[in-house]
Amino acid sequence: MQNEAANFQEGDYVVYPAHGVGQIDGIEKQTIGGCEVILYNISFEKDRMRLKVPVMKAKNAGLRKLSSEDRLKDAMKTLKGKAKIRRLMWSRRAQEYETKINSGDPVSIAEVLRDLKRSNDDLEQSYSERQIYQSALERLAREYAAIESISEGEAVEELETMLNKAAATAISEKATDEAAAA
Fold first, then answer.
1. Does the pTM exceed 0.85?
2. % of the chain at pLDDT higher than 70
């Protein structure tokens, strides 16, 4: 009776795009509007939130298993890449960043982190940039931590280290390019 595409078991870690990593606490039947519906009970410990998703709607809602090792490697490669600076108004970029974060895709979230990371980010970023950066960092760190079986704090440290190294490399490359041009 369960949807084969979203066949999760109690105890599985899953990703719900708008909320990030949660854990299936149970699967239950409820009667809603006279129809019997099977629901996944998902808890998001960090947000102290519970969500019930109908099994037959899970795939359409974007509920998925944790990313594969390959997809996580793609996200880490993206983090280490060169930031893409877009010359759009901040409100438009912020909207695009929020969409990427809420997609639940680790590579898209890594793009947000990479693009918002700056060498001395605390001084250059606005409050809203820091908020979006923090939201993306927490979202990616939760999935990274669940996949790597480490704490969320350790995941944040590892991701920030990668981002800082990439930012330092970008600065030294820019300085080298400027020196060569002079």
1. no
2. 86
